[in-house]
Target: Response regulator transcription factor
Amino acid sequence: MRVLVVDDQLITRAGLRQLLTEEGHQVVGALEHPDEVAPAVAALRPDAVILDLVMPPDFSDEGVQVALALRRDHAGLGILVLSEHAIPECAERLLKGGEKGTGYLLKERIMVPLQLTRALRHLAAGGTVMEPELIGDLMKARGRDERLAALSASEREVLRLLAEGLTDRGIAERLHVSKNTVSTHVSHVFDKLDLPRSSLDNRRVRAILTYLQH
Model:
């Protein structure tokens, strides 16, 4: 994939460039300021953009701000925000519109071999990737939601793995069950969360957002 890296720390930019190159990707640019992103995406046309959450000028949530602007202008672009810490509010803002191809991971997560590549490929295919630690925190914080309370333990676990970006086959392998069993759980999750019937991928995104919004 053609990837644009945006991080104000030189060592992080260099590390991401090396990691991406070793995993077979082409780094088309490595930027240090959010203001450079929009023109670079228009000129370089990457498949995906990796953004640090905290950057100049305010060192707060610039990565989310840039991600939302990119999503409005480049619907098919894979966008991954990396952060030192899991911040529920940032994840909720990032995904509140139900956008596909958008993800939020901790920087330590991508140190696992090929984890970054798997995330980028999933985003490029229109999927959503969410930090597992963050999903767990949000589940606890919002456990009183009646729809979530209606899920069985197995259904909650399947929903958590959906949030990690796993396919039905990936979930089946993780839980050591059949793919048909996973598909049944997913269908029950959609029904119990009262999600509108549309495309399957969109319902998956909406299911994840239910954790964030309720």
